[in-house]
Each structure stands twice: as structure tokens, then as C-alpha cells.
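Question:
Now give any protein.
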Amino acid sequence: MTLSIQYKFPPEAYQVLLLLSLFLYVDQAAPHTLGARIRQAVGGPSVIDKVRRIAIGIHIMEAAVMLLVNVRRGASFRVTVNHGVF
């Protein structure tokens, strides 16, 4: 018997989208705008770049661990996505 790897979209996905939108706004802000002032308040472009690299690394490691755990449990590589109730 093989199990399929299943992923369910979290009900709080709007929070992630809101934070991502805010991060992109601050990261891409033109000089002398509110986004540029926020970027400077948190430490400048180098801090934004560091946060981006850390977030990407965490997501890659999380995906790899999830895949390894599911394969170890006997799941197949077939992926199903459950949309849940909206």
C-alpha cells in the first residue's frame, strides 16, 4: 500500500500574503517614500537581503524535510492538493 503526499492550504494564507506584500513593497520602494523609510528603520537593504536569504533557506529545508519524512513513511511521489473549505 502506498500513500500519497497531501498538502492542505492553511486557512491563514491571507496573513502570509499580507506579510509577503509588505516585504515586497518595502524591498522595492523608491527613494524618499514610506517604504524606503521603513527599510532604513529596520537596518537598510543589507538586512532585507539577509531576511530574504534566511526565508528562502528555511522554505527549501522545510520542503526537503517534509518530502523525506513522507517518503520514509511510504508515500509515493504522486502529489495531491486539497483545497479545503473556503
Notes: The helical segments are 13-27, 34-41, 45-72.
